[in-house]
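Dear colleagues,

I hope this message finds you well. In preparation for our joint manuscript, I am sending the Phenylacetate 2-hydroxylase (Oidiodendron maius) sequence together with its predicted structure, so that both groups work from identical material. I would be grateful if you could confirm receipt.
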Amino acid sequence: TDVPKIKGLPEIPGVPIFGNLIQLGDRHAKVTGEWAKKYGPVFQVRMGNKRIVFANSFESVRQLWLKEQSALISRPTFHTFHSVVSSSQGFTIGTSPWDESCKQRRKAAATALNRPAVQSYMPIIDLESTTSICELWSDSEGGKTDINPIPYFQRFALNTSLTLNYGIRIDGNVQDSLLQEIVAVERGVSNFRSTSNNWQDYVPLLRIFPKMSNEAEDFRVRRDKYLTYLLNLLKKQIADGTDKPCITGNILKDPEAKFNDAEIKSLCLTMVSAGLDTVPGNLVMALAYLGGCDDGQRIQNKAYEEIMKVYPHNDAWSKCLVEEKVPYITAFVKEVLRYWTVIPICLPRKSIRDIKWGPAVIPAGTTFFMNAWAADYDAEYFHEPEKFIPERYLDSPESTGTPHYGYGAGSRMCAGSHLANRELYTAFIRSITAFTIHPPQDSTDLPILDALECNLIPTALTTEPKPFKIRFKVRDPVLLQQWIAESQERTKGL
Ligand code: HEM
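The corresponding structure tokens are as follows:
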């Protein structure tokens, strides 16, 4: 293995060459969560020739990812993602090992995504949530047609990111070919990034079978095409003086900017891909819960009541852009992020210094995996973790400190969490005030709600909800029409 056996740290017995890969199968979060009951929350496994330290409880993640955050600041590299998929566009920030370039890129992204910056992006969220809800309303045909909400919220997330980054949005409907191409390719690439999907990353001998590498190469070529198209379009707009303010435009126009071409591409890639699966995954599973089970009806009623308490004059639709004043919806967002932990095995880390763990010294250069799903379902920390209870974030001990590990934790925690929180909050306020959400007419369309079982590809990096349908019935068509018209008026210059 890359790192020799770590003395004093429980090790899961495995087999030669593959180590524990076969036992882990396609259910890494579930299997390691089970092992933790027998071996304790932190243990070492062998995945082919890599030794990995897994943390599985809320407290152990806090100890390692937060208390040791300066030691756990780097990311490992993997053959498929780093050598094949990323060979032409560079790595995203989330897949870059820690060095001066990564530090500068993370700093630029963090500045562009900090609280005040995100507040200035609210017009984009206004436009995109209105567009998606409007189309969803029209396609629902007055509540007669059941809807799969996934594409509407993929467009919401993608257009928000594209406008922020390039000042460009996809104008078409949810069938738009560029939208579908980006969604399909980023989804494919995300599978090559997964720590549980690519045995050739761990067992080099498997690289002699070209299938995976060919597929990865195909996605790389398709990705290059739209990234080059978007960047060139922005450059042309800058040359013509028709560009809109955006993150990459600011960098390209700044004579002091310290980024080279590869770094600019890395920033663009990060912005396009980071929110594309994660934001819709959370949004869509929350809607699935609201419409797809009895408890969802209770939560919708409660959420609507709480919104109306704060906004009795029907102005939640516009007020949610400037303030976050409905504590129940803020708590609901946190519970959604915990319950569906859409990156169940968080993005991997690599230590840059030795870390002491009980009697063990885990050497610098070791790869660490956080089982964020298991930590977020840790019964020693969360009361009834398998239940969806937004109230846990209102008035219980769970409401203080780190709420969940949906965004990871520590030095490389999600840099887009403010933006994502605002996207989720706005979309929920608007969906809940616009519609009541119901089960589908055909029970075979009912969503699967379990956080792991709902995933179409169990080995994917990010949860991809299995397709389902629910019914959206408008609460008050006149009011909704008015809100939409006001939003369209506010955002017509965008
Ligand atoms: C609900 C939506 C989102 C979820 C659940 C999510 C989750 C995550 C997670 C788990 C990580 C790894 C953190 C770690 O290693 O501790 C991460 C990293 C990152 N995320 Fe997000 N994310 C979301 C949305 C976004 C958005 C919208 C953006 C920006 C447009 C973004 C930008 C980033 C960046 C730049 C990193 C890499 C940080 C680094 O490696 O230093 N994320 N995200």
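For the figure legend, we might mention the following. The longest strand covers residues 42-47. The pocket of protoporphyrin IX containing FE is lined by residues 93-94, 106, 109, 113, 161, 270-271, 274-275, 278-279, 282, 342-343, 346-347, 406-409, 412-416, 419-420 (CB under 6 Å).

With kind regards,
E.M.
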